[in-house]
């Protein structure tokens, strides 16, 4: 993989380790409130101190610990949403593109359009509101709105790849549909989906933040970067670091996933191999 | 006689649906036979339906009508399991050496795939077979560990040929196997195909858009125009005594290695191939034929034997009306 890809992989690995080992790393509990010194003005109370390197938030919780535990939510949401929606999308898109006919008309002509016609975030809000806010339902809702993008891309790729002569050759050799799809079509169709998945990972992290802000995602007092971002908005002037730190974390994650996506695409292409 | 014929095609039709409920008559009633051990050259310009015939023969496309018999069996009525079995006996070589090999698989995997699908041998035996096949097509057995993009067009075509040979088929459809190659490489691949034919007793349907290539390899040649056969004859015969005006024009179009020599006076063809959605009435060639008569615009000439083994669909040569093959 190229240098940027490796860099991305390192960042993601670090975040991943942090997420998994959060209770071991975090200096404080992410939800216990420390009494804020009453004699100080708000802006001074929130400033970093020796005990709290990233300061306390407005409720007196240690920001560093919340960041560390927030990584859990972000990683979980990002990975789970992408895996779930990509799996569903690849499956439906591949079947739709490969078999064509009424199957394709049903999926791509009807189902895709039904899902695309809803503003996606509204659909997610409706789903979470209906199922009740929780991490699991948030992941479910984001996957339900996310799979169509993968399915459309996959279908288009399959339509292209299935016309190649090597697919015809496999059919002439007597290969079955499953073999043709898995061995010949999928590996030649998947590339743009990997890039899409890395972007989707980033999108899922951001969507989690939006839904959490609306009270439909992560429930307080659980920490997530999105929740922290939104909590910190009112202190933008007095304690910008409360906003910058989770913002940077989201940005770095998104960037890292994009680098990895790019690196993977290059790495998966045998023509690029040395 | 039937024993001698490996492939028998009768009234083969393939109509593709087009916009506004119209149909493209890609192949519109073609009958011919391919004898065991021969090379049948099928010639015609782009869009005349020659590739469609090749694909129908392997049931890669389901024909609209007609019958195909392969080694005496009705190919169009066999079930899935039987068809899988039949596929061991007939294979295809493609025109484009770039799109015919899966870029993600190593050459060894590509060539052993047919063996894997049909469960031939164990892993070790398949590996040995791949090495042997690579040698047979004139490539280094070590190439098995490389990817297709590391090879030139001619080498890739050889890999495709090795894949087609893996199951020891009787019959191979060669769909313009050299059209995408350099002229110098073309000869090599044609020679290889001829050697393999001798070695393994193969029967070829050799599809090409020009008569020049087919000349060297074919036993008999069929010329197609707009979904129909217009002439069929032994190879020497079609080059020395072309009867159909279309064949004559095709022959005249072959560039001569000695351009200063006088050429036979055959009028060059004007215009384009008519739309296969609405082919012209009567003889399909009359719109471009230098000899077109009134009758040609009204009636379609039968495909009949005008000399022993020489068939043509043209009123100019209708001495006796014999029913087709």
What's the arrangement of secondary structure elements?
The complex is a heterodimer of chains A (274) and B (325).
Chain A: H1 3-20, H2 22-25, H3 42-45, H4 63-99, H5 101-117, H6 120-131, H7 135-161, H8 165-172, H9 177-189, H10 191-213, H11 225-232, H12 241-268
Helix pairs in contact in A: 1-4, 1-12, 4-5, 4-7, 4-10, 5-7, 6-7, 7-9, 7-10, 8-9, 10-11, 10-12, 11-12
Chain B: E1 5-17, E2 23-35, E3 39-43, H1 50-57, E4 65-70, E5 73-74, H2 80-86, E6 90-93, H3 107-117, H4 123-136, H5 153-165, E7 171-175, H6 183-200, E8 203-208, H7 211-217, E9 220-225, E10 228-234, H8 235-240, H9 245-252, H10 294-298, E11 304-307, E12 310-312
Parallel strand pairs in B: 3-8, 3-9, 6-7, 7-8
Antiparallel strand pairs in B: 1-2, 1-4, 4-5, 9-10, 10-12, 11-12
What features would you describe in this structure?
The complex is a heterodimer of chains A (274) and B (325). By secondary structure, chain A is mainly alpha-helical. Chain A is built from 12 helices and no strands. Chain A has helices at residues 3-20, 22-25, 42-45, 63-99, 101-117, 120-131, 135-161, 165-172, 177-189, 191-213, 225-232, 241-268. In chain A, helix 6 packs across helix 7 (135-161). The longest helix of chain A is centred in the first third of the chain and has 37 residues, at 63-99. Chain A is elongated, with a radius of gyration of 22 Å. In chain A, 44% of the residues are buried. With 325 residues, chain B is an alpha/beta fold. Chain B contains 10 helices and 12 strands. Chain B has an 8-stranded mixed β-sheet, sandwiched between helices. In chain B, strands 2-1-4-5 form a 4-stranded antiparallel β-sheet, covered by helices on one side. In chain B, strand 11 (304-307) and strand 12 (310-312) form a beta hairpin. In chain B, helix 3 runs parallel beside helix 5, helix 4 (123-136) packs across helix 5 (153-165) and helix 5 (153-165) runs parallel beside helix 6. The radius of gyration of chain B is 21 Å and the shape is globular. The two termini of chain B are 12 Å apart. Mean pLDDT of chain B is 87; it is low at 320-325. At the A-B interface, helix 8 and helix 9 of A face strand 6 and helix 3 of B.
């Amino acid at each position: 993989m190229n240098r940027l890809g490796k860099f991305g992989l390192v960042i993601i690995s670090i975040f991943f380790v942090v997420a998994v080992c959060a209770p071991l790393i975090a200096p404080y509990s992410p939800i216990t409130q420390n009494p804020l010194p009453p004699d100080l003005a708000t802006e001074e109370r929130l400033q970093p101190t020796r005990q709290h390197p990233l300061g306390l938030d407005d409720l007196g919780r240690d920001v560093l610990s919340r960041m560390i535990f927030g990584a859990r939510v972000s990683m979980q949401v990002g990975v789970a949403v992408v895996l779930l929606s990509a799996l569903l999308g690849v499956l439906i898109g591949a079947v739709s593109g490969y078999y064509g006919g009424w199957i394709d008309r049903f999926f791509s002509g009807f189902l895709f359009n039904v899902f695309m016609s809803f503003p996606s975030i509204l659909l997610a809000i409706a789903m979470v509101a209906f199922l009740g806010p929780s991490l699991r339902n948030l992941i479910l809702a984001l996957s339900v709105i996310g799979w169509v993008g993968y399915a459309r891309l996959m279908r288009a790729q399959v339509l292209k790849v299935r016309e190649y002569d090597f697919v015809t050759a496999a059919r002439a050799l007597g290969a079955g549909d499953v073999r043709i799809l898995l061995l010949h079509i999928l590996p030649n169709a998947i590339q743009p989906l990997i890039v899409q998945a890395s972007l989707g990972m980033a999108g899922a992290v951001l969507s989690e933040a939006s839904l959490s802000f609306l009270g439909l995602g992560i429930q307080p007092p659980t920490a997530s970067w999105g929740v922290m971002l939104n909590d910190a908005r009112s202190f933008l002037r007095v304690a910008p670091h409360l906003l910058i730190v989770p913002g940077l974390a989201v940005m770095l994650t998104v960037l890292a996933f994009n680098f990895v996506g790019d690196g993977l695409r290059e790495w998966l292409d045998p023509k690029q191999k040395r | 006689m039937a024993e001698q014929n490996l492939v028998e095609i009768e009234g083969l039709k393939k109509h593709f649906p087009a916009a506004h409920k119209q149909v493209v008559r890609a192949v519109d009633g073609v009958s011919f036979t391919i004898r065991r051990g021969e090379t049948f050259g099928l010639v015609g310009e782009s869009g005349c339906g020659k590739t469609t015939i090749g694909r129908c023969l392997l049931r890669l496309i389901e024909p609209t009508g007609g019958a195909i018999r392969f080694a005496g069996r009705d190919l169009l009525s066999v079930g899935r399991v039987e068809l899988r079995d039949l596929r061991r006996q007939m294979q295809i070589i493609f025109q484009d050496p770039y799109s015919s090999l899966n870029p993600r698989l190593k050459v060894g995997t590509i060539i052993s795939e047919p063996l894997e699908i049909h469960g031939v041998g164990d892993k070790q035996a398949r590996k040995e077979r791949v090495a042997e096949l690579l040698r047979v097509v004139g490539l280094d057995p070590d190439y098995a560990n490389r990817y297709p993009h590391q090879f030139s067009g001619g080498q890739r075509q050889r890999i495709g040929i090795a894949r087609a040979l893996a199951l020891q088929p009787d019959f191979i459809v060669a769909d313009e196997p050299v059209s995408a190659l350099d002229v110098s490489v073309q000869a090599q691949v044609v020679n290889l195909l001829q050697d393999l034919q001798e070695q393994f007793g193969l029967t070829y349907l050799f599809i090409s858009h020009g008569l020049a290539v087919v000349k060297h390899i074919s036993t008999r040649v069929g010329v197609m125009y707009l979904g129909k056969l217009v002439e069929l004859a032994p190879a020497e015969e079609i080059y020395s005594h072309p009867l159909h005006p279309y064949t004559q024009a095709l022959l005249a179009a072959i560039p001569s290695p000695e351009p200063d020599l006088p050429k036979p006076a055959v009028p060059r063809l004007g215009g384009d191939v008519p739309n296969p959605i609405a082919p012209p009435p009567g003889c399909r060639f009359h719109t471009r034929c230098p000899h077109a008569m009134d009758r040609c615009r009204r009636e379609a000439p039968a495909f009949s034997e005008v000399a022993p083994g020489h068939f043509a669909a043209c009123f100019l040569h209708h001495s006796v009306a014999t029913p087709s093959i």
